[in-house]
Amino acid sequence: MRSIFRNNLRLKPSILASFAFLTVPVFFTVIAVNYISNDNIARSNAAELVERFRVDALANIQADFNPLKSLVRSAASIGNQDPGFYGDSRCFRYFYSIVLHSSKIVSAYVGLQDGSFRQTRRVDPGVDIQGKLPPEGSQFAYRWVVPTPGQPLLDHYTFLDADLKELGSTQAVTTYDPRVRLWYRSAAQAGTTMISDPDIFAALGLIGFTVAAPFYLDGKLAGVAAADITLGGLGTYLGERKISPGTVSYILDHQGRVIAASDLSKTYANNQGRLELRHITSLDEELPAMAYSLRPRKSEDMYFFSHGGREYIASISSLPQEFGKRWQLFVITPMSDFTGTFQHNNIRLAIFGLIAVVVQIVIIYFLTSIVSSPLERMAFKVGKIQDIGGEQLPSVRSSIREIAVLSKAIDTLDATVKSFAAFVPMGLVTQLLHSEQKLELGGHSRFLTIFFSDLESFSSLSEEVPSQELLLRVSAYLELVTKTVNQEHGTIDKFIGDGVMAFWGAPALLEDHAWRSCVAALRIQRGMDTLNERWRAQELKPLNVRIGIHSDAVLVGNIGSRERMSYTVMGDGVNVAARLEGINKEFHTRICISHNVFKEAGERLCVRPIDDVIVKGRRSKVPIYELVGVYGADDPGLEPDEAAVKLCKMTRIAYEALIKEDNVLAARRYRDILEQFPDDPIASTVLKRLVAA
């Protein structure tokens, strides 16, 4: 795993990835910490505001009712002190002062034990009273019902404007009896100031509460003084004191029925004069039902819950016992009202942060390009140095001093390696460049193919041709041999004057080393034919190349001293190959190969036997062949034509007679060859030997 990363990581992506790896997690960590911190602050603020609202609301609800209780108690005290005060119209002005005390108070009144009822109330100009609308401009009304024995019970109204100027009056027969009303009976039963359960105000047609207090005469109940406050007043109070825009709050009775709602929704029904309050779980909205069902059963602590993908904080608290009613304040607030600003800030921070990261990455991308681009080009150039035969790439320019120095060193390395490859076998140089082995003395035995080439009559030619011209022509020949050997994956060992020594199968192993050497020999001969055509056109003497090829086990390796060594092959096989190159002179052939080469390459070679010769240093004769062509090469021009195939066949027949020492038959068959191929040098040479024998 380690080596994979070491060999495959690239500079620019690595720098960008490192920056992203180091910066992006830190950035998102900051965002996360900021979010968590803001969320905790928001939750703390929400809890604090809910608690403050709860305390204030409970106090204010009591504060709204306590003055009214005081007023009603005062009214009851007047009845205790002066029972006759409520027996005539003097009480109307007093009740008027109570109504003006708060806009939530809609009426103040008294009911006496004799059935009398006197009231000062607010008037809605759009609501019928006794079957018709009040006079225009009416804002208040005095109302009284006084039973008279033997007379129908009449309900009287006197309508007043804001200045208590009388605008009109009306009366109608009624059955109204204050003594049977809930407020009267509840106060009489309680014997003290009380707040009634929600009820329908008979005179007003409204739903609300009554604060009532009884008064007595001589220890007996004389009447009840009372004032009305509507449910709408409580709802308006809750709506005006929201913690946040999304907050909803309710006042519930001890059974969970809704007395008032901050959204002013209708939470009750008038069922034939009987009030029916809706339970909090039966409202049209699911949220209050969900919040109410999740409330703590044994405490009044605030709690959090989720609904519809949003988080809420809720609180349910009971009013103090001294309030006189077992009411509860139920508050539900969405957390988004508190975290929304923080979330928007976090989103903006994330967006701006991401933009900043992208801008930084772009800047770093261009900055790293200044460093990485020349380094990548130099890395590519170093890789190309291993391709010794490739063209030299241009120098890498950089304004960074260290990179410029490195570029110059690589140029020097490139030139040095190419120069080194001109003196040392290219295969060895390539192997050294691709491996981590050190250049050391030593060798090993390997079966490979050795190649020798030489120019025909070079000594006489050197005396006739100017040295400069000869150098150019020999250089062209040597360049042809070098390129061809390299093309066929051979190794140039050395140049010996006009001769070339090469081998196949080292340093790189080759399964088909014998065949490749033969292909290279044929390519060299064809290349020399092309050069000779050009030189003849220039009226220059042609150069003929003689090649000898032999396959054998030889010693291959670095030979010499530590100060100077040579990668070469040594052994008897080298001598045989050199001898085969010289045999071409005797038989006037171009390419002479040994029987070992023919065995290695097999039927892919088109050869004809020359003779069995004794090579210097060996006692036994060695069969040798002339290479005519090859089969299956990527160049069709290397395959033998029909005439060459026929010549090879006739030569093999003549050779069979020769090795059987039937000289007469052999001579006749070689004459047959000369009849069809008069210029054949092998047939001429062998025939001369037979005749001389």
Which features does this protein show?
disordered N terminus, 46% helix, alpha+beta, nine-stranded antiparallel β-sheet, 17 helices, rod-shaped, 693 residues, 24 strands
Rg, please?
61 Å
Helical run tally: 17
Shape, principal axes of CA atoms: rod-shaped
Number of strands: 24
* Average of the residue pLDDT scores: 82
Descriptive overview:
The protein is an alpha+beta fold. It is about 45% helix and about 25% strand. It contains 17 helices and 24 strands. Strands 1, 2, 3, 4, 5, 6, 7, 8 and 9 form a 9-stranded antiparallel sheet that branches. Strands 17, 18, 19, 20, 21, 22, 23 and 24 form an 8-stranded mixed sheet that branches. Strand 1 and strand 2 form a beta hairpin. Helix 11 (about 465-485) runs antiparallel to helix 12 (about 515-535). The radius of gyration is 61 Å and the shape is rod-shaped.
Question: What layout of secondary structure does this protein have?
Answer:
Blueprint: H1 2-8, H2 11-81, H3 90-99, E1 105-112, E2 117-122, E3 140-145, E4 154-160, E5 166-173, H4 182-190, E6 194-195, E7 199-200, E8 207-217, E9 220-230, H5 231-240, E10 248-252, E11 258-261, E12 268-271, E13 274-277, H6 286-293, E14 303-307, E15 310-318, E16 328-334, H7 336-385, H8 401-423, H9 426-434, E17 442-455, H10 458-464, H11 467-487, E18 491-496, E19 499-504, H12 513-537, E20 545-560, E21 565-570, H13 572-587, E22 591-594, H14 595-601, E23 605-614, E24 621-630, H15 642-659, H16 663-676, H17 681-692
